[in-house]
Structures are given as structure tokens and as C-alpha cells.
Amino acid sequence: MRALLSREVGDAIRDYIVEHGLKPGDALPSEGELATLLDVGKTSVREALRRLEAHGVVEVRRGRGLFVGTFSFGPLIEHLPYGLQADNVPLRQLLQARRALEEGLVCEVARVITAEDLDRLDALVEQMRAHTVDGRVPAEVDQAFHQALFAPLGNPFVLQLIDVFWSIFRRASDRIVLDLRRPTAEDHAAIVDALRSGDRAAMTDAVARHFEDLQRSLDAEVNSPLAGEANEAS
Predict the structure, then answer these.
(1) Distance (Å, rounded) from C-alpha 149 to C-alpha 103?
(2) Is the pLDDT of residue 19 over 90?
(3) Among 26, 50, 70, where does a domain finish?
(4) Residue 179 DSSP symbol
(5) Does one domain contain both 101 and 10?
(6) What is the Cα–Cα distance from 10 to 233, expressed in whole angstroms?
(7) What is the tens place of the pLDDT at every residue in 20-34?
(8) Where does the record place the HTH gntR-type domain (predicted)?
(9) For 59, phi and psi rounded to 5 degrees?
(10) Cα dist. 62→29, 59, 70, 92 in Å?
(11) pLDDT tens-digit profile of 154-203?
(12) Do 13 and 58 contact (CB within 8 A), yes or no?
């Protein structure tokens, strides 16, 4: 019951911040004043503030008081890989989200990417070609390519989300039988070529083709006889 009450108090403090138009860095009432305002005990307020501080909503400055925090996606991103895996979110659903993200943003990248950025992507493709084994490239180089691809957007949230997807798929890689039909390095090279061409359709097609092998592999896993037996057993 206490946990539920502290969550409700946390919601009330959020509402207070919004209703009073408070901005990051603005002062909040003290614990005692909040307890009086919300008609709850100081213990519930203290627990709620601890939870809000962990999520960056409030900032507790020792000896100075309470202040509105600067919102960050950091705590959300930090816990997202665990939450998705704990809830057994299917990899096919995660791949769908990742494809939508990358296919949708690649044309935005084309508007701001520089010749230096393209040279960096070329260098990563050459690293892939030099270290390809059975059509597969080193995971860390593949991840670096996707980070470099979307870095020109200057959007740390996008880069963090890409890292989340990478973290989950890397942990699951030992149980995915990857059906490669094309060399992975050449798929990445095609993305760079499409960016240089300025052809928006070519860009989205190149990104989409890059995910085809993984999509096919996950579809095969779901449709395999063993998967069907497992579903029946559950």
C-alpha cells in the first residue's frame, strides 16, 4: 500500500510542477510543505521524491532544497533493455521498431551529412570487408557504422535507442540462426552509395534490404516446427 501511495504522491508532485509552469532549476516546496499541500505524511513524500529523483524529475540539493530536474532520457534508456527482455518482447517486434526508426530517418541524415561523414562510413565498410567471416562482420564495427550513420542528426536519443536494440540483439545472437543471402558489408556499402546519390527511394530501399536477412531469420524461427511445439506446450 505504501508503494502505491508514494507513486500517487509522485504523480501529484508532477502535476504540481506542470500546473505551476515550473521549469528545470526552479525551486519546489520543501518536503514538509509538500506533505501539507498534498495532505499526506512526510514519509510518503520522501519516498516519492526518491523515485522522482531517480527519474530526473526532481533534483535534491543537500542543504539547499528541492528543485525541478532537467529531463533526460538516460534513466529510461538505461532500463529499457532489461524491461523489454523481462517482458519477453519478441525480437520480431523489436526489429520492426528498429526498421521503422532507421528507414524513416535515413533521408533526414541525407540532408545534413557531410563528405567527412561519408568518408567515415566508407572506412567502416572497409573494416567490415577486411574482417568478414562467412558473410558476417564484427558486431562492434557494424554497431559503429549505425552510430556513425545517424550521428549527423545530432540526436542523442536516436543513438541511445540504436544502442538499446544492439544490446538486446547481441545478447540473443547465440540463439538466432542467421540466414545470410548477401554479404553484410555490401549491404552497408549500398547504404553509403545511396546517400551519395541523393536518391531518397534508394536510401530507404538500401536500409530495408540491410534488414531482410535478419527479418527472414526471425520469421523462420517463429515458423519452425520446434517453435510450434513450444507454443503448444505452453
Answers:
(1) 12
(2) yes
(3) 70
(4) -
(5) no
(6) 42
(7) 999 989 999 999 999
(8) 3-71
(9) -125, 125
(10) 14, 9, 17, 46
(11) 998 898 888 888 877 777 766 666 677 778 899 999 999 999 999 999 99
(12) yes
